[in-house]
Specification:
CATH topology: Rossmann fold
CATH class: Alpha Beta
Strand order of the largest sheet: 5-6-4-3-7-8-10-9
Order of helices and strands: EEHHEHEHEHEEHEHHHEE
Number of strands: 10
CATH architecture: 3-Layer(aba) Sandwich
Strand content: 15-25%
């Protein structure tokens, strides 16, 4: 069994990692998912903020749907979608370029080797495409290619549990966060009771509820989040709240 860096769960040996990423993209980056899941999620976040973020980092952006939605709502803000996966960034860049019929950035914090170029394909000068307001970048969350205090808002949706080095990643997020900025980490609640889960999913399609249950089981529990926040020196800047099936960690930088 191999670890799935997208869903944080175990995969069948019958699928290669790249095949699973393609399957994830095919089932998640759809018009229905955007309208019913991603768009309402982004709208809720931005509505509840007390400020308009001028620079936003979507960390673990996957196929790029959250970054695209933020770009639609805040066209004057700079939005960076970052992911470690060449497959995800390649898809995100192509979709955004196709949607707007203009270029979008694909930069890399890594040395681009032959394998990377193979995954990016033969699109001439692909890594040189750019758009001024929305950029997609290949980078490691534990070593972000940004200067200190670069962002007003950092968002992670379903990403934290998948990070290879959670402690270093937390420190990096805080380093690139500007004064009065916020980091918002969203995951599913692992500690939800069976009765509460059944009540919240009683109107769901049974197969969808079953899939959701697997995702909850792949999440961390609150004590694990608290441990990482404490070890990163961020406990006093953080708060953890639960809301239905969701868990939200807010980290503020008010210094």
């Amino acid at each position: 069994m191999q670890e799935d860096a997208v869903l944080g769960c175990k995969l069948s040996k019958s699928l290669s990692f790249s095949q699973d990423e393609e399957l994830y993209i095919a089932t998640s980056d759809t018009k229905i998912k955007m309208e019913e899941d991603y768009a309402p999620f982004v709208d809720k976040i931005l509505t509840n903020l007390s400020y308009i973020p001028y620079k936003v980092l979507d960390l673990g952006c996957g196929p790029g749907y959250i970054a695209r939605r933020i770009n639609e709502i805040l066209p004057d803000s700079f939005v960076f979608g970052v992911d470690k996966s060449f497959t995800m960034i390649n898809h995100a860049a192509k979709i955004f370029k196709k949607r707007l019929k203009m270029d979008c950035a694909v930069s890399s914090a890594y040395e681009i080797n032959n394998a990377a170029f193979t995954m990016l394909g033969n699109d001439a000068d692909y890594s040189n495409y750019y758009n001024r307001k929305l950029k997609y970048m290949i980078a490691d969350s534990a070593s972000l290619p940004f200067s200190n205090c670069s962002f007003d808002l950092v968002i992670l949706k379903g990403t934290f549990k998948c990070l290879d080095d959670k402690l270093k990643s937390l420190k990096e997020m805080y380093r690139v966060l500007g004064v009065n900025g916020e980091i918002l980490i969203y995951e599913f609640r692992k500690d939800i009771s069976e009765d509460e889960f059944n009540m919240l999913t009683k109107h769901m399609n049974p197969q969808k509820a079953k899939s959701l249950k697997r995702k909850l089981n792949c999440s961390l529990d609150i004590l694990e989040y608290e441990k990482y926040l404490s070890e990163a020196g961020l406990a006093r800047f953080s708060d953890i709240k639960t809301d239905g099936l969701d868990l939200r960690i807010r980290i503020s930088k008010n210094c």
